[in-house]
Amino acid sequence: xxxxxxxxxxxxxxxxxxxxxxxxxxxxxxxxxxxxxxxxxxxxxxxxxxxxxxxxxxxxxxxxxxxxxxxxxxxxxxxxxxxxxxxxxxxxxxxxxxxxxxxxxxxxxxxxxxxxxxxxxxxxxxxxxxxxxxxxxxxxxxxxxxxxxxxxxxxxxxxxxxxxxxxxxxxxxxxxxxxxxxxxxxxxxxxxxxxxxxxxxxxxxxxxxxxxxxxxxxxxxxxxxxxxxxxxxxxxxxxxxxxxxxxxxxxxxxxxxxxxxxxxxxxxxxxxxxxxxxxxxxxxxxxxxxxxxxxxxxxxxxxxxxxxxxxxxxxxxxxxxxxxxxxxxxxxxxxxxxxxxxxxxxxxxx
Length: 350
Ligand code: SF4
Known about the structure:
The chain is α/β, with parallel strands linked by helices. The protein has a domain at about 65-160 and about 245-290: HypD, alpha/beta domain 2 (Rossmann fold). The protein contains 14 helices and eleven strands. It has a five-stranded parallel beta sheet. A four-stranded parallel beta sheet has the order 4-3-5-6, sandwiched between helices. The protein has a two-stranded antiparallel sheet with strand order 10-11. The longest helix is centred in the N-terminal third of the chain and has 19 residues, at about 5-25. The structure holds iron/sulfur cluster. One of its GO terms (biological process) is protein maturation. This is Hydrogenase maturation factor.
């Protein structure tokens, strides 16, 4: 007889407990994906794990890792007369100079870069698209840039790459990590190859977004640790091919090149961001003087930085749920639907 979903989950949890018992030491597994965090919190997966297995979240929210300098540059562009287009999550993030939602300028919330391009087509003024996102969204920005957009269309690229951040986390040793759960959506684009340098040191398991997917990934990490194995295991075979998506990768490659850049909560991470290639300079916001000030700080009472590095949890923040809520957020982690504070507030019992 076929096992029910509930029975399957119970079986996975039993096997996780057995593996953890055999390991007989504390284990920290980090995931780097807002959608994974949502699955984990919404389904209470942490409460199903053995005491010696910690599942921490890293820099998996693209809005959260965007620096205040990049946001402030877009705010200034709007105040200087450009039409600024940004995703809804980005729109409300507070910075020391206000937010896109409160600034004195023409800021439009868009669902896609194509919509921003359409706005540019219908506008006489210059239009700035603030491009936020990891490898999942960068190919769509690339596709528009490579498709001869209107001359008044500019991109401020805040796109970032996940594997260099994983390498930084591992090298810094700040949070002692035993394994990574790799993001499913990002992996559909990049495949498994880019995790290899991290996977030389510890197990990396690519996972999907159902609760069972996350539990399977935890089990795979524990099994690899027990066997003393490292490497990449793909547990999301229904969506991720080892080679990734060649078309999307080619678009990214043609439009962007990697550059060293700070992330919110992180120092400069080598080759961790995407800048426009020289032949697209006509659409590069940097070329018309929209230059982020990466030294710009943020509200010191917000501990998003530590949360994004796996060193703290949302409820460690004294502002959580009191002075900082989704309707009145202090930091990006409470604004974005992929932010750990928002997810904890919304799905973790408020
Ligand atoms: Fe920052 Fe608010 Fe999260 Fe605290 S609860 S870390 S202030 S976003």
